[in-house]
Amino acid sequence: MSETPAFKTLPGSAASRVEIFFDGRPLQVPAGQSVAAALLVGGVQIFRETPVSAAPRGPYCMMGVCFECLLEIDGLQNRQACLTTVREGMKIRTQMGARMLAAGGASDAG
Amino acid sequence: MADAGLSSDCIVVGGGLVGASIAYGLARSGASVIVLDEDDKALRATRGNFGLIWVQNKGISMPRYSAWSRDAARLWPGFASQLLSETGVDVNLQQPGGFCLCLSEAELLERERSLQAIQKAVQGDYPFEMLDQQALRQRLPAIGPEVVGASFTPMDGHVNPLKLYLALLQACRQMGVRICHAAHAGKIETSDDKGFRLSCGPVSYRAGKIVLAAGLGNRALAEQVGLYAPVVPTRGQVLVTERLRKFLDYPTNKLRQTDEGAAHIGDSVEDVGFDDRTTTDVLQFMARRAVKSFPLLRDVNLVRAWGALRVMTPDGFPLYEESILHPGAYVVTCHSGVTLAAAHALRVAPWIAGGPVPAEISEFTAARFSRGLVRPMYVN
Amino acid sequence: MLAEPIDLAIVGAGPAGMAAALTARSAGLSVIVLDEQAAPGGQIYRSVTSATTGRCDVLGPDYAEGRELARDFEASGARHEHGAAVWQVTPEGRIHYLQAGQSRMIEPGKVILCTGAMERPFPIPGWTLPGVLTAGAAQILLKTGDVVPADPVVLAGCGPLLYLLAWQYLRAGVPIKAFIETTSAADYLRALAKLPAAMIHWRLLAKGIGLKAALHSSGVPIFSGARELRIEGGKSAEAIEFRTGNRQHRVEARVFLLHQGVVPNTQITWSLRASHVWDPVQLCWTPRASVGGELIGLPGIFIAGDGAGIIGAEASRLSGRVAALAALRALRGSHSDAQFENEAAALLRDLRRATAARPFLDALYRPRAEFRIPADEVIVCRCEEVTAGEIRKHVRSGCLGPNQLKSFTRCGMGPCQGRQCGLTATEIIAAERGVAASEAGYQRVRPPIKPISLGELGGL
Q1: First CA to last CA across chain C, in angstroms?
Q2: How far is C242 from chain A (nearest CA, A)?
Q3: What is the pTM of this model?
């Protein structure tokens, strides 16, 4: 990330921190929050590329009705990050387009 | 939208897949055509199809239908490229062959018997093979351990049904077919100078020929022109998943992956009248079967489910009939509007336009129905 | 399935749901409340049970009021199932929900839907870029974790919530780069006629004036009567361009918060095939219900709060109490509307009073047509990336309604199931056809109305 995060936590916020991983990179984020909020504070703007045109998308509604904040969380793809709470050690990855299925699939991998 | 007193060579009642296929074929034969379509709330079996171009196991009790389906599938490649060159719309035709997965030995055995019987009845031009689990896994690596085997035929395939529909409508418009929306067909009268007059509320349409392609609406309309079309609704429920990277190269009869990537899972056949709602027990059953067939789908999210009413004759086979009482009035109804689209456009429509009756369809008249109860023969 | 019978199931633990639960519990009913969030409060009182004094100070007194309600709710004895996403309600009143990866089903005596509201979509060029969020989203970030934009932020649109957010940011010391309001003098003029009737609720109006005054004396650049909003950016949002009068403006920022009111969250009621009417004032669909909130044609299923039509938090509480009383009476076998109106007269009167300012607010903050029926280039269906132009093209080719539109363009076929595009699609179709929105209709909504996996559905 070349830029600083676009969001921050207000000073005086009492939350403890947890360590999560985003695309392999470790991030220290406030505990008890949604993954979406935590990543925004951690400097992540782009959460996914759309399956239709690979357009970059990030959170929009923060309440589970827009389905923009879809991420791969601990191996499960297309999870709504605004409805999932961060946990220590969580592994999160950008959702690159359509869901990829486990091995055993056919022909082209992409 | 007020087309008062329009007249043409042909009126096609019903602007769904069947009506559009027929209208397309009629227009290509040089006829002027008016299509009458209902509004946004109409039942529309067109939106309820599964997108399969399916041959195997059809026509178990009627070899003529097995052959008709087989030949219809063979017309598809030419039909698709014709639509592409005429409209620029690629309907994503794929005919790599298709599988019917079997989840028990009994199912597998029954399937083999059935296909052998059909093959015999159509004098052998009906390629298929039976695969046990090991052989199947070579072709479909993603199948689950509970899949005992499958039948495969190179004749099967699938297409994008919405693109097909769009392409047909566009081709029709390009050829000057007039499509009238929110037109609810009412009274059909025969006029003295041969021909028909159809009233849609205050508006009336005239034509020398009239084709009833109105799906479930055909029952009432047919009576007016001396035809018998005892169609009833059957409900099909389908589950649709989120988009997925390509995992399946072949269609199966109950699950296929669309060109956009979603998996479509079906496909129930229920006798519930005009109720097109989805039911949890059926959806659950279909979900379980899908996961058993392809375990890698377990964590995939469902994005929507729908129920649609399809059109069923007493034996499930089509009606292609010209009225004896009122020559020039035709009824066209079927259960497989996608599979038969090419045949409707390239074989049925030219007949209606004035050509000779194709030998293959002479059996598809209502004379074959006894007036008593006939057990419907469903295709699975 | 639950062993003991449930008298009443409530979907949603916002003000309406919590108030309904309290009323039902005090009448001795067994109550289960299903809510998607981890803690009660809905969206307006989000995270209120864990809110620090500092946070309540920033968010304001209205938010803090939710704390008492939430505490009473937690002590009420209602069974609160949190993290429960309702994916289907059947006309017979059966509720299917997903919780911790398991799909469960309950068959309560009666159901009250308190699903509340969601932000009205704000389709402008660039609204899908990362960095563009709703004002509601910004409030959720504030409420759930004291999260705010790190750089000076842009707020744009109209409506009380936008002013509230600005006020909250000022109190929190968050710099606002620009406040771009689409409200203009003409809106005030239109609303003036409704002001006398709104005066009963003068406290609410006074609050609003206070918020605005604070904003105006804060030094934040305010642009009024803004038109032709568009957000520019490459991989994320970088600037907003707009016009006021004859002047073109461009403001650079990284975060843009849009808002033009809220609309009822009608996924469940549409999926039930409840009858809806198009409200030409609130410019949204509302389900038809009796005075007590019972859905017309769906006996045993009630609706309360913003989900039935936007009324605000205070009125939602009253609405929840009304529905609980109506459900209670239905459980006891009495079904007379007239009798109910008699018994609940005081409550209904309070409810009317609490919504007295609504017509005024709806008139003042009526979202502009250009932001509801956007230009051709604008993405309408975010999930499937369908533009307004594509929709219009199909309407011109004879596509009469949103269901045909779905077939032809895939608009509404994505995971959000039309939540972000449904209203826009209805209005574009209506405008293009030259008919009322009520005639254009709304797309069919089917369960599952929340994501559920094949394995979860199959119970595997």
Answers
A1: 16
A2: 21
A3: 0.93
